């Protein structure tokens, strides 16, 4: 089995101590920085924008996995590339021309991700799967950290894994929302490659240890 990746979500960090929390991720067993961008339109919440991400990028020593929860994301693809984004995910539900958006992300030298809401059927990705480096499968409704995991996600992971295999694609499956030590192993067993964890990591007394525990739990 491939190494299972852990991507702590910066949304759950303490923004008054952002550098401390970035260094914690740098020095932990985490693999990626998961960065949630919300516009108050696609989702009912606003998170943070370019100046904050620029500061994160200046200190982060691991790949930046940016999850755009914004309408019409094509407008910002270049801006996110310029900030140093490694993997850029746009929402399926926010893209009229998803294939074009994926090509535009790759043309800027980034890996192309597609995020899907809990109600979006994975079969809708069949025709673009070979162009997708990462599917960010939402296991909560996007917009907020700290929500409860939606159990239907396991079924969707298995369905998506079949589509990836049937098409000989190398797409990674990332699970985003409500990930804890209680569901991590089952998510990996269903076919997940990357686990995002926000409040579970930052709400713990020792976030670095929690990341290490998640890493160990999912790679055994
Ligand atoms: C939700 C975000 C998630 C969120 C995860 O809209 O996309 O990345 O930060 O947070 P937890 O792990 O607390 O559910
Ligand atoms: Zn996210």
TrEMBL record:
User: Where does the record place a coiled coil?
Assistant: none
Q: What EC number is given for this enzyme?
A: 5.1.3.1
Q: Which domain of life is it from?
A: Bacteria
Gene Ontology terms: biological process: pentose catabolic process; pentose-phosphate shunt
| Catalytic activity entry | D-ribulose 5-phosphate = D-xylulose 5-phosphate
Q: Name one Pfam family in it.
A: Ribul_P_3_epim
Alphabetically sorted, this entry's keywords are: Carbohydrate metabolism, Cobalt, Isomerase, Manganese, Metal-binding, Zinc
- EC top class, as a word: isomerase
Does the record bear Metal-binding in its keywords? Answer: yes
Gene3D superfamilies found in the cross-reference section:
Aldolase class I
Active-site residues, record numbering mapped to chain: 36, 176
Q: Which GO terms describe its molecular function?
A: D-ribulose-phosphate 3-epimerase activity; metal ion binding
Q: Which cofactor does it need?
A: Zn(2+); a divalent metal cation; Co(2+); Mn(2+)
Q: Which residues bind substrate?
A: 9, 67, 143-146, 176-178, 198-199
Question: Any idea what job this protein has?
Answer: Catalyzes the reversible epimerization of D-ribulose 5-phosphate to D-xylulose 5-phosphate.
Q: What is the recorded name of this protein? A: Ribulose-phosphate 3-epimerase
**Native source species:** Aequorivita sublithincola (strain DSM 14238 / LMG 21431 / ACAM 643 / 9-3)
């Amino acid at each position: 089995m491939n190494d299972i990746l852990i991507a702590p979500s910066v949304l759950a960090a303490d923004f008054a101590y952002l550098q401390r929390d970035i260094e914690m991720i740098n020095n932990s067993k985490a693999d990626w920085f998961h960065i949630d961008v919300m516009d108050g339109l696609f989702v009912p919440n606003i998170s943070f924008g370019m100046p904050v991400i620029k500061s994160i990028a200046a200190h982060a020593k691991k790949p930046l996995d940016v999850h755009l929860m914004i309408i019409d994301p094509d407008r910002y693809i270049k801006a996110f590339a310029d900030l140093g984004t490694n993997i850029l995910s746009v929402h399926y539900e926010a893209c009229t021309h998803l294939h074009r958006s994926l090509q535009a992300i790759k043309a800027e030298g980034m890996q192309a991700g597609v995020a899907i809401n809990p109600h979006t059927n994975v079969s809708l990705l069949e025709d673009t799967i070979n162009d997708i480096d990462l599917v960010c499968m939402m296991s909560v409704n996007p917009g907020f950290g700290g929500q409860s995991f939606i159990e239907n996600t396991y079924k969707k992971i298995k369905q998506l894994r079949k589509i990836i295999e049937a098409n000989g694609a190398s797409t990674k499956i990332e699970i985003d929302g409500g990930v804890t030590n209680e569901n991590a192993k089952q998510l990996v067993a269903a076919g997940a490659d990357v686990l995002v964890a926000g409040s579970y990591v930052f709400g713990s007394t020792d976030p670095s240890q929690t990341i290490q525990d998640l890493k160990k739990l999912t790679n055994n």
